[in-house]
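Hi U.,

Before I forget, here's the chain from the pilot set. I'm dumping it here mostly so it's searchable later in email.
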Amino acid sequence: MLLTFVRSVPLARAALPLARAALPLARAALGGLLLLPPAGLLASAPRLALAAQPASMKLVRVTVSGNHQVPTAAIRRAMTIHPGETVTRADLQANLNAIVDVYRKANVGASFKQRLTISPNGRTDVAYLIAEQAPQAAPAPAVLRVDHVTFEGNKAVSSDAIRSVITLRPGQPVSNADVAANMQAIMQLYRKKNVGVTITPNASYPAPNQAVIDYRIAEKG
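Structure:
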């Protein structure tokens, strides 16, 4: 008769916000989640008792399934047990620790099941069943928006007239291309009025992701 033992080790992804990576700690619990701690604090997987498991086993086969974000080759390179060896409970625990550590270093959340199928003569198959968490979507990039638009130095052409030809409006997204295109619109207005002009755009940032666009106008003639 074959005996099958299963141990489960949960491991959840730690979120890494840009420029503010902070890995929280939590207690490991069977059937619960283990949040990834800072490097060096996760020394091993939780130890789970296996009743009636033989003291030593002849290892026949080791399989890995369910891994998609971490290559099987990377997991096998980290393994500390191999087919043909005689292994103990401590060896199995060390191998489980090594696989958990691969996932910790890759910052991939997953839960693990280590399944042992043991024949009466001690010949043993070990299967690692891994359930990975879906990759977290990258945060959306911040959008710079117009706070307001100002004009300096315009005398021959009123601010209202300039404002009527530009497209920048408070609250709308703004890019360098938008600022340049609106500068060209102002210059075109001056050409229609036969007034020479030099325009220098400038930006200030009164709040995060908010820009005040200032057109500094030097009229000629």
